[in-house]
Amino acid sequence: MSESFDALVVGAGPTGLACGIELQQRGVRTVLVEKGCVVNSLYNYPTNMTFFTTPELLEIGNIPMTSLNDKPNRHEALKYYRRVADHFKLNIRDYERVNRIDGEDNAFEVSTTDRLDCQHTYRARKVILATGYYDVANRLDVPGEDLPKVLHYYKEPHPYYNHDVAVIGAKNSAAIAALELFWTGARVTLIHRGAEISSSVKYWIKPNIENRIKSGEIRGCFNSRVVEIRKDSLLMATPEGEVMLRNDFVFALVGYRPDLEFLAATGIALEPSTLRPRTNPETLESERAGVYLAGVIVAGMHTNEIFIENGRFHGKSIAVSIATRLSQLA
Q: How many CB atoms lie within 10 A of CB 299?
């Protein structure tokens, strides 16, 4: 059994929701398919995370966002996007993974699998990919990386109290994790290939982590890299030679990337040097006719170019293009 829609949006993050709203407001029958929960990436952010932006810059659908402080936190963002989805009565199929996109412009066939392993088929005239990048972690590619103690996402510090924890990386996520782990009683070592904490770390976090390292409360190992991870230790290459550290848990927080395999399987052409998808800059339609891209995946590996603040506007450009083309075919 299959269902038919004018447009199918892959992904129900803030950008996917914005696309759904803009399409729906133009009379385009739309369904959103999300492999996790609504705004799944935001849900997987650290529990106590605060956004480095103001509430109005996270708003979609002209629905005001409120916050107790100048900058909203994760809990407030999750509540806001749930409220937006309810307000617009968006048709969201969550915990359902897109397996394949067959067909052509105006006659796509999208195959999915839901959380109960049931297969679904959707017919759609247009497809929008708003899959983000937070679901695919960059790997260290070292022996032992697949041990259960190695984590690529940080949620909260309590389980690591009184343990030896290594944090790999020196950007926001690594700095915040290292500080919270230290405050909760973990023995923290921060390891980074570069010479210092990244200049992009939030201004209220950077001096804090630097001072903890300077005082020796957090061990900072710069110009260093992990060579091997073992059950109770890890081997690290440093300017002074190889060093073995006692270790219980590893947070490999070295960034994330778009699901390039899914894009390639969907027939999205990428620029070889940047892995940036080739799209029409005005409509964001890809070289596969009828398939549009929205949000951070438009930037390829340059994930620091597009955030919720600017990606949320992609929905309008895409919706205008789709509504116009559908009306011309009516």
A: 20
Can you give the residue ranges of every domain in the chain?
2-135+256-329, 139-252
Give Cβ neighbours of residue 204 (< 8 Å, ≥ 6 apart): none
User: Which homologous superfamily does the CATH classification assign to the domain defined by 139-252?
Assistant: FAD/NAD(P)-binding domain (3.50.50.60)
Contacts of 177 (CB under 8 A, 6+ apart): 46, 154, 157, 167, 251, 253
Give the chain's radius of gyration (CA, Å).
22
Query: b/e map of 8-38 (b: 16 or more CB within 10 Å)?
Result: bbbbbbbbbbbbbbbbbebebbbbbbbbbbb
Model pLDDT, residue 305: 66
The model scores a pTM over 0.85: yes
The fold adopted by the segment(s) 2-135+256-329 is FAD/NAD(P)-binding domain (3.50.50)
What is the spatial distance between Cα 310 and Cα 318, in angstroms, rounded to a whole number? 14
Mean pLDDT across 66-90: 96
The pairing of strands 187-191 and 164-168 is parallel
* C-alpha span between 233 and 164 (Å, rounded): 9
